[in-house]
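R.M. (postdoc): so does anyone remember the format we settled on? I'll just put the structure tokens first.
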């Protein structure tokens, strides 16, 4: 009798609550005079830095860490279509990355930051610590393999056979991200849009769409497994060995 071969796919999706909320904030300005633009961004950045520093002092477990990039400035020769004249337009920007432990403070923090001039929240991303991330990914892969074993066992039982895995192909595991949450009008925060002068840098940019409700972190994994029928003689031998051991 030809040995039975079964090929199945095993899949798994698992999730857990995030450990951190990573908020990214932009401080930026534009204008015809470089000195004014850089001064505006520096002053706004000092205020923001003081706020996060004070929050860390008042509520020690609120923030895991916060950091900022260096202030970046550049010149764009913007062509005015209305007057067909060129004007120099200077840009300045830096960004903050703030990692929160206390999710219950996010709504209040967002409302406070919205009031700061030349400051905009780019996004809030939910993340795991490195240890938690590895543990979730490992669990998802293991459960994908168990899913494959369960399927193959079901098929083999129906035809009165026993099988074991002889070939395993990892089809990959990855994190499932939710749809991007808009924080400002679509395309308003891309580097290309910013450099081309398409951003309105006044205070009329608001963050109504920022969602401060934690989102579970999800991982998915899949595996392709080939199973081959257990040789009946080998199966009988293993049963005999078990009986010998019991005696």
């Amino acid at each position: 009798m030809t040995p039975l071969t079964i090929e199945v796919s095993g899949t798994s999706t698992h999730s857990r609550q995030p450990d951190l909320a990573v908020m990214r904030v932009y401080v930026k300005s534009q204008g015809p005079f470089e000195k004014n633009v850089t001064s505006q961004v520096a002053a706004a950045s000092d205020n923001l830095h003081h706020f996060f520093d004070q929050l860390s002092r008042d509520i020690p477990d609120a923030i895991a860490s916060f950091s900022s990039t260096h202030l970046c400035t550049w010149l764009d020769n913007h062509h005015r279509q209305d007057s067909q004249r060129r004007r120099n337009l200077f840009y300045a920007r830096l960004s903050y990355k703030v990692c929160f432990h206390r999710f219950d403070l996010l709504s209040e923090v967002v409302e406070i930051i919205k009031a700061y001039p030349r400051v905009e929240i780019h996004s809030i991303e939910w993340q795991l610590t490195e240890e938690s991330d590895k543990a979730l990914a490992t669990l998802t892969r293991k459960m994908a393999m168990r899913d494959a074993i369960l399927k193959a066992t079901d098929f083999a039982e129906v035809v009165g056979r026993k099988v074991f895995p002889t070939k395993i192909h990892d089809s990959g595991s990855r994190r499932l991200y939710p749809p991007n949450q808009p924080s400002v009008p679509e395309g308003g925060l891309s580097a290309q849009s910013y450099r081309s002068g398409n951003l309105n840098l006044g205070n009329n940019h608001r963050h109504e769409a920022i969602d401060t409700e934690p989102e579970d972190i999800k991982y998915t994994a899949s595996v392709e497994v080939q199973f081959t029928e257990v040789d009946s003689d080998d199966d009988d031998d293993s049963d005999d060995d078990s009986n010998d051991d019991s005696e």
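R.M.: ...and that's the designed sequence above, right after the tokens. Also worth knowing: Helices lie at 34-58, 106-114, 130-158, 191-195, 232-246. The chain has five helices and eight strands.
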